[in-house]
Design brief:
five-stranded antiparallel β-sheet; about 475 residues; 10 strands; alpha+beta; Phosphorylase Kinase, domain 1; three-stranded antiparallel β-sheet; 12 helices
């Protein structure tokens, strides 16, 4: 009798163990399926919260902005490579990022699958997106130290794309700025921000697939020297402010505004690009780098060593670009160093003191004896073409304020009288709607040329040096 009971108990225990194994395997398959469907979101979230120092998972709308104490990205007046290796950071990023990107690596040892980023509702179900062989390279647009940009074509839908191919090295891993750019752009959907279609990861490269845009503002101005058509300046500036207002409301700074990073489509759409230096605001630690923004577009507070800045950093760049579009030359084309750059700024706005700029004496690089004492001028004395356009000088003066807290915000600038003759519907557009969907809004022909006359070397943040800026 005891033997029978023992036998039944053993059989029952065996069935329970088998059932447990079956349930465990079933739950495991369900979990893997869920992880697979959410892989893209998991990957970018992990990159943004673990790999990028300063890319905090909780973003708060604070006035001052911190900076990573370790990562210092160098900028110069004539060239900048956004894929320059950040000191002491790349190896760490490599190991943690690979853990994310190889999340679905098969046990058979195959190459890690591609990380998908889709731009249309139907594409997530398509097996063709996210694969390197889904895109045909047509021509090289430019090359930097860590990335090469190609004009390409999607084999899935036939659309033109820009392929930013980032070379990976086993020792260094994925460049820090590439992770930052992909992480931020993934969540930004706006007509005036370049669209990231897809992300492709292989053992040798990381490829960011962008919408193809024909040229950039720098090339456009080169094609039309002497200043742009006043109406075109207004439409370009409106779009720039519209894109900036969108990211600033999401507590993101671009930190590298310059004409090369403003793409222009063949219809005249302006799109913010190159978010490799962009940052999300978070808990203040007052440690943001002062080595941001190409020298010509760098505000005086940053030039003087300030590391406590907010959206006002980008607004100085907007003012410089505004003046350059109207005047036809850069507002402050420093030719030597930071000292020379500051002298050019003070020549127009006057050498600052505690009355005109509270707290200027506490900035690390401000030594009054080092600077010539200048008196402020009217902006039209420095840039005469501002006087040709109604309200242009007033708007420029409110953007180009040496004291950062006095600079106009992007949202406030959109309401300035300078734009008062534009159709009211422009202020009612949804984020993804182009301003050119509004009747009678179109670019004027510049100097008898068609809008389709463009150069080909769009930047997309590829880090190619430029002798002018």
């Amino acid at each position: 009798m005891c033997d029978m009971i023992d036998s039944q108990s053993a059989e029952k225990i065996g069935r329970m163990k088998k059932l447990r194994r079956t349930l465990s395997e079933s739950f495991g398959r369900i979990a893997l399926k869920k992880e697979d469907s959410n892989f893209d979101e998991i990957c970018v979230t992990k990159m943004s919260t673990q790999n990028c120092q300063g890319m905090d998972s909780v973003i708060k709308p604070l006035d001052t902005i911190p900076e990573d104490k370790k990562v210092r990205v160098q900028r110069t007046q004539s060239s900048f490579d956004p894929f320059e290796k950040p000191a002491n950071q790349v190896k760490r990023v490599h190991s943690e990022n690979n853990a994310c990107i190889n999340f679905k690596t098969s046990s058979a040892g195959k190459e890690s699958p591609k990380v998908r980023r889709h731009s249309s509702p139907s594409s997530p179900t398509s097996p063709k997106f996210g694969k390197a062989d889904s895109y045909e390279k047509l021509e090289k647009l430019g090359e930097g130290s860590y990335a090469t940009v190609y004009k390409g074509k999607s084999k899935v839908n036939g659309k033109l794309v820009a392929l930013k191919v980032i070379r990976l090295q086993e020792e260094e891993g994925t460049p820090f700025t590439a992770i930052r750019e992909a992480s931020l752009l993934k969540g930004l959907k706006h007509a005036n921000i370049v669209l990231l279609h897809d992300i492709i990861h292989t053992k040798e490269t990381l490829t960011l697939v962008f919408e193809y845009v024909h040229t950039d503002l720098c090339q456009y101005m080169d094609k039309h020297p002497g200043g742009l058509h006043p109406e075109n300046v207004k439409l370009f500036l409106f779009q720039l402010l519209r894109g900036l207002s969108y990211i600033h409301q999401r507590y993101i700074l671009h930190r590298d505004l310059k004409p090369q990073n403003l793409l222009i489509s063949d219809t005249g759409e302006l799109k913010l690009a190159d978010f490799g230096l962009a940052r999300a605001k978070s808990v203040p630690s007052h440690t943001y780098s002062n080595e941001v923004v190409t020298l010509w577009y760098r505000p005086p507070d940053v030039l003087l060593g300030s590391t406590e800045y907010s959206t006002c950093l980008d607004m100085w760049g907007v003012g410089c670009i505004f003046v350059e579009m109207i005047q036809g030359v850069a507002a402050f084309p420093g030719m030597k160093d930071i000292q020379d750059q500051l002298e050019r700024i003070f020549l127009v706005f006057g050498t600052p003191n505690e009355d005109t700029w509270p707290g200027v004496h506490s900035l690390p690089h401000f030594k009054p004896e080092r600077f010539t004492q200048y008196s402020p001028k009217n902006l039209r004395q420095a840039w005469n073409k501002l006087s040709y356009v109604n309200h242009a000088e007033d708007l420029a003066s409110k953007l180009l304020q040496c004291f950062p807290k006095n600079r106009l915000s992007a949202q406030a600038a959109l309401s300035h009288e300078y734009f008062s003759d534009l159709p009211p519907r422009l202020w009612e557009l949804t984020d993804m709607s182009s301003i050119f969907t509004v009747p009678n809004v179109k670019l004027q022909t510049e100097a008898g040329e068609s809008m389709r006359v463009f150069g080909k070397n769009n930047s997309y943040g590829k880090g190619v040096s430029n002798s002018k800026h």
